[in-house]
From TrEMBL:
Pfam families registered for this protein in UniProt: eEFSec_4th, euk_SelB_III, GTP_EFTU
GO biological process, any: selenocysteine incorporation
Gene3D superfamilies, per database record: P-loop containing nucleotide triphosphate hydrolases (3.40.50.300), Translation factors (2.40.30.10)
Superkingdom to which the source organism belongs: Eukaryota
Signal peptide span: none
Protein name: Tr-type G domain-containing protein
InterPro entries, sorted: eEFSec_C, eEFSec_III, EF-Tu_GTPase, P-loop_NTPase, Small_GTP-bd, T_Tr_GTP-bd_dom, Transl_B-barrel_sf
Domain Tr-type G: from-to ranges: 1-185
Length: 513
């Protein structure tokens, strides 16, 4: 059976939950505003899960899971969590209002978590005239054309019209089925080395014990399988007793399946948001992570080293301090392990094609993380009413480390020193002063190249030279020209030395060009 998950995203009160309720054939636990506060406030506070059962064009049974994500600005972390487990997006837009603040954030989230396929639904179409609706559709499509989304189709509906029954639902169902068929099939997970389950709810059921619900992110879950529940304190292993997929008992569930598991001897008071995995050790637990980092173009503030952001990683949102690093783009396919690469320390994350950026995230607490998963950086303290993008960057988590990471990674900092020509010995030799102080260890710089600025009298007198040795005890050094010639006009000219200060593994330091 093919499993496909569709995230239903949009601005608060655009009608997502009403649409999902009409479309669904089976409701799951945690579906459609079960949270008491959701019902009282009329908005979704948690992820909702429901499904549509159908047969595809080849007669194969298929379950389409609809993941109803909250639209309220304060629940951005929940939206990000939901977007990670879907194959495509149903973007719901209030036809009377067009793209709103959280609509834009949903678009950004979809891009950073690599959702490529989108079905656009204009709800409340009964509230606007044809001309206004066409103008809104054109504006939305123009906006989406600037993204990486492949817009499958647009549909007009009215899930809860002021009068009469819902409008356009049958058309939406047909477009949704065609949309699902167009999404490339995922692997079943049978060939995956590890099984990972994203758990979202844990609760007791009388006569059955503790039940958890979640989504299979990779591998397969089987009855009798032992799952590890890694925690930041001490993990534990428990056995799967039974499996259900939307109230149907099954013995195995593959990648992408929405499941309910009855677990042997599991305390129902454990945290709801967590991972379960097999074999044990598949989930990393750490408070220092390193990964590639990609800026979000809509985020207008600088992203600097030592700045703090909220990092959405796994089920956690944790404050993280960044240390930015980079390597040349030519090194992107380097087979070297991460801890053997040579990084340049950066002050600010830029949009550059010739550099590949990384970040070390120092977290305020230990978290459970799946390597090669996507993390998202945000500034949630930004006023959501300001219309400013709060999503700053995305990252692929590549490695977990500990507080000794500075001694484990090979990091260099670009340095520059300046001095001046003190006197010219001959056309090939000169003495340089002020490049070093007497306290500096000049011998480590012997052999490095320097640039000597053109003299005011001769604009063609640029000289490249090599530091040949020390001269006296005041910090002066002897320069030997390798390109060009010295003349008396060079006395007083600027001498510049650019080099890399290397911090190697186990804290060793060295200098190189």
């Amino acid at each position: 059976m093919k499993n496909v998950s569709i995230g239903v995203l949009g601005h608060v009160d655009c009608g997502k939950t009403s649409l999902v309720r009409i479309l669904s054939t089976t409701l799951s636990t945690a579906s459609l505003d079960r949270h008491p506060q959701s019902r009282s406030r009329g908005i979704t506070l948690d992820l909702g899960f429901s499904c549509i059962d159908r047969e595809d064009d080849h007669g194969e049974s298929q379950t389409i899971t609809l993941v109803d994500c909250p639209g309220h600005a304060s629940l951005l972390r929940t939206i990000i969590c939901g977007s990670r487990i879907v194959d495509g997006m149903m973007l719901v837009i209030d036809a009377s209002k067009g793209i709103q603040t959280q609509t834009a954030e949903c678009i950004v989230i979809g891009e950073v978590v690599n959702i490529n396929h989108v079905l656009v639904v204009f709800n409340k179409a009964d509230l606007v005239d044809e001309a206004s609706l066409q103008a809104t559709e054109q504006k939305v499509l123009k906006t989406l054309a600037k993204t990486k989304f492949q817009v499958f189709a647009t549909v007009r509906v009215a899930a809860a019209p002021r009068e009469g029954n819902a409008l356009g639902i049958e058309s939406l169902k047909q477009k949704l089925f065609q949309f699902v068929d167009s999404i490339p099939s995922q692997s079943s997970g049978a060939e995956d080395r590890i099984t990972v389950l994203a758990v979202d709810h844990v609760f007791p059921i009388k006569g059955q014990g503790t039940v958890l619900t979640g989504t299979v992110l990779g591998g397969v879950v089987r009855v009798g399988m032992e799952l590890e529940f890694p925690t930041t304190a001490r993990g534990f292993v428990r056995k799967v007793k039974t499996i259900q997929c939307f109230h149907r008992s099954v013995s195995v569930a593959g990648k992408g399946a929405r499941v309910g598991l009855s677990i042997d001897r599991l305390d129902s008071n454990i945290p709801e948001r967590q991972f379960a995995a097999s074999p044990p050790g598949a989930i990393e637990v750490s408070n220092v992570l390193i990964g590639s980092i990609f800026p979000v173009s809509y985020y207008r503030q600088p992203i600097k080293s030592m700045a703090k952001f909220q990092l959405h990683v796994g089920h956690d949102v944790v404050d993280a301090r960044l240390t930015l690093l980079s390597e040349g783009a030519d090194d992107e396919e380097s087979p070297k392990p991460l801890i053997e690469k040579e990084f340049l320390r950066e002050q600010e994350l830029e949009h550059r094609d010739d550099r590949r950026y990384f970040a070390v995230f120092e977290l305020e607490k230990r978290v459970c993380v799946i390597l090669n998963s996507i993390a998202v950086g945000t500034k949630l303290d930004t006023d959501p009413k300001s219309n400013a993008c709060r999503i700053a960057f995305s990252s692929i988590v590549m490695h977990s480390m500990d507080e000794s990471w500075r001694r484990m990674l090979r990091i260099h900092t670009q340095k520059r020193r300046e001095g001046e020509i003190d006197r010219v010995v001959n056309s090939k030799e000169a003495i340089c002063k002020n490049l070093f102080s007497r306290e500096n260890n000049q011998p480590v710089f012997i052999g490095m190249k320097v640039d000597v600025q053109n003299s005011a009298q001769d604009s063609t007198s640029m000289v490249r030279a090599r530091i040949d040795g020390t001269f006296g005890k005041s910090g002066k050094v002897r320069l030997v020209a390798t390109e060009g010639q010295f003349s008396e006009s060079h006395v007083g000219c600027l001498v510049s030395l650019e080099y890399k200060k290397m911090t190697g593994r186990e804290g060793s330091k060295s200098f190189a060009q």
